[in-house]
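tmp note - histidine kinase
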Amino acid sequence: MSEAVKPVRVLHVTDGSSLAELIRAAAESDPPIEIQTATSSAEGHQQLVDGDVDCIVVDHDLPNIDGIELLETVREDYPSLPFILRTDGGSEKLAKDAISADVSEYLHTDQKQALLDRIVDLVEQYRADHKRERELQRTTDLLAKTERIADVGGWEIDTETREVFWTDHLFDILGVKGDEEPPLEEALDFYHEADRPIIASAVDEALTDGEPFDVDVRFVRPNGEVRWLRVQGVPAVENGTVETLRGAVQDVTERHNRERVLREMHDIISDRDHSFDQQVRKLLELGRRELDTQYGTLSEIDGDDYTFEIVASDDDSIQEGDVVPVSATNCEIAASTERTVVLGDVERDAPDETDRAGFAEWGIGCYLGAPVFVDDEVYGTFCFYGTETKNGQFSDWEETLVDLMSRWVSYELQRRQVTEQLHEQNEQLERFASIVSHDLRNPLGIIEGYVDIAVETGDVSELHRVQAAVERMDTLIDDVLLLSRTENAISERSTIDLRTLVEQCWETVPTEKATVSVQTDRRVDADKTRLRQLFENLIRNAVEHGGENVQVTFGDLDDGFYIEDDGPGIPEDVRKTVFEGGYSTSHDGTGLGLSIVDEIVAAHGWEIRITTGTEGGARFEITGVEAVD
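out:
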């Protein structure tokens, strides 16, 4: 049934005379009136307590019924309940007493229709008021909850009295106990001394000129704690006069802290006077301070090796350069999942991880770490961990901060790698330019000279020398092109028998009277085309520098192979430069062969070094090569 036709429930305290006639009239009323009766003040009060009553009607001056006394009792607990007092005669004193006790209506007993009409009117008004009160209470409750969730409080200033009103949550925000707002001037004194003129000026302009304001200022709580507040004020203007000033206060301390941290981070990463390692160390210290952790590390993961590259800590339990199994650390999770790992309490959030060696050795209670990427591959981790657990969890802001730091580290590592590659390419271009501008100029000059002679004299007897110069240029061009295509140019690897490949290379390189001894049956995984170029260049180098009767030997090393000859060897003081383009002691050499060898070795991930051979010649040892069974 809707509220519009809901019956009106009336408690009638009476002796029962003429009640039947009243009940009949009430039943025909719209809305219908339901009457329950009591024959004494005490009974009436009890029914009121026990029942659900919309209105109480009391017949005064009957035995056991004192209308004024009952009215006063009812008003103690039901201040707004409609209360109608009826009397046969009445008096001026009775009327005054009734009005003083807050009676709703005062009627003569013979006014039956007027009674019913007043009951309906009073109850409708009572119900409407009660509904508004419920809605107001609901709104107030929702506002209070919203204030707490948003950490916002409200305030109001009466421009005439200068009185201040605060919402309940504003007391909490300001850390002020009690329920009585301080005077305006005293309230302004709570603000930080440096910011007091800002808020005072804003309030004054709002009160006098009607200007709204929105300022961030510091507030000093009674316990001395400084908080940042966003204070907004909007004047209520009527007829050109500011009547009240209302506004809101929001605690924005965390926002200001975040902005401060981001400014610090920006200053660190934009300071080009510091090295990358110094910048990372400063970021780790900043992160440790904000996350309240004991350790901050940038680490590299290579297979199962976890290397602490840069460490920020108050103790020396972890040193830069220390290497531990990655399985001993929580960073394995960040690396394998390629996501940020957040553990406010390792035992609570990841009980399966507590058996890692690092958990017990370093006493890890909490962990927050993010993967670092280079070339879209996991390079390592940027992480923080402490010996104490977090009461709750790392905040979203703290997780975001670590993500931002790790992304910058990833970017810088990637940039450094690209810069190094560009530097190497520029050096290579410079070598090519030197070769083209210098080494090609000599045979080109020879060609021009003999061609000019032939044109001027008609004598072509020396043109065979032009052919030699052309072949020299052709060799130079081939070597330059090969070198330019070799760096990092490894295609699909295959299993290669070294003996077979060496013997094939020996047949394709002009070796004069040189001899070869192949003392290996090893097989390796390599790019066959590039490995062939490596062997051909080393054979050619031995023949060019060792003489036409040179003996060349290929043999095994524990983790690779070697090629040596019995020629004059390479002086120790020039061994570091022989792999640079253009180095050659042979008149016919281009000086690029060993550069090509070095690039092929590096592209495979191997290493090469020069030593003295068994017979005093040059010995090239290539290591880091895994043999294939």
